[in-house]
Amino acid sequence: RKEVEQDPGPFNVPEGATVAFNCTYSNSASQSFFWYRQDCRKEPKLLMSVYSSGNEDGRFTAQLNRASQYISLLIRDSKLSDSATYLCVVTPSGGYNKLIFGAGTRLAVHP
Amino acid sequence: GAGVSQSPSNKVTEKGKDVELRCDPISGHTALYWYRQSLGQGLEFLIYFQGNSAPDKSGLPSDRFSAERTGGSVSTLTIQRTQQEDSAVYLCASSFGVSGELFFGEGSRLTVL
Predict the structure, then answer these.
(1) Which of chain A's residues have a Cβ under 8 Å away from the Cβ of B107?
(2) Can you name the residues that pair with B69 across neighbouring β-strands?
(3) Contact assessment for residue A105 and residue A85, using Cβ atoms and an 8 Å cutoff
(4) CA-angle at B81, arms to B79 and B87, nearest 5°
(5) Which terminal CB of chain B, N or C, has fewer other CB atoms within 10 Å?
(6) pLDDT class for A52, splitting at 50, 70, 90?
(7) How far is Cα B64 from Cα B77, in angstroms, rounded to an integer?
(8) Nearest CB to B102: which of A42, A99, A102?
């Protein structure tokens, strides 16, 4: 079983739609969680951290469910510029020496 | 520029040759990471440096792979006797201290013929 699993998609949605991605992780001792964004043929960039209480940044909301070992990302009012691959990232335990990346979920927003 | 710099951006080599990939992190960033990404795949962790030390080498796929970091700055990833399965984009990232925010370079695309 992979340490971090994501639905590869693609999710094809119209502009203005709300879309949600989930990610599951296998190590219950995982400490920290993040969502990164990777545009086609570009390097990954941090989108947002995921806190136990959940957090929101504009149109983006991230939530953590430790009991079920999954994190989610909700994007409201999708824009064309949101088209990218969204990577779920987990740190196993005790520090950031090894960030484990999921394979990513591809989002395509169309007019 | 002020970002993470990697070279070469593209490298085509023949099977069995050695290659060196270089990473110049953001100035002042103490942590440095190497990952690789194969076509359509996720990022595979290779190695992590804190300063010049590599406390976690668990991701290096074989003894053909080695990495070093000198002066707490530039790092070199060396692949000896390259194989076709080594073809991938090798990404370097740095962070200030121990942080979940990694700043990635644009990667070195390695093609082994």
Answers:
(1) 43
(2) B75
(3) yes
(4) 60
(5) N
(6) confident
(7) 11
(8) A99
Across chain B, which has 113 residues, the per-10-residue mean pLDDT values are 91 97 95 91 91 87 95 95 97 86 95 96
- Structure confidence at residue B40 (pLDDT): 75
- Does B106 sit within 8 Å of A43, measured CB to CB? yes
Write the residue in B42, B55, B56 that is nearest to A102 by C-beta.
B42
Q: How many CB atoms lie within 10 A of CB A35?
A: 23
Name the residue of chain B whose CA is nearest to A92's CA: B100
| Residue matched to tokens 């370079």 | B105
- Residue A96 touches chain B, beta carbons under 8 Å: yes
* pLDDT surpassing 80 at residue A96: no
Question: Is the preceding peptide bond at B8 cis, omega within 30 degrees of 0?
Answer: yes
DSSP summary character for residue A102: P
The pairs formed by A16-21 with CB atoms below 8 angstroms and a separation of 24 or more are: A16/A77, A16/A78, A17/A78, A17/A109, A18/A74, A18/A75, A18/A76, A18/A77, A18/A78, A19/A74, A19/A75, A19/A78, A19/A107, A20/A72, A20/A73, A20/A74, A20/A75, A21/A72, A21/A73, A21/A86, A21/A88, A21/A105, A21/A107
Compute the radius of gyration of chain B from its Cα atoms: 13
| CB-based contacts of A51, cutoff 8 Å, min separation 6 | A62, A64
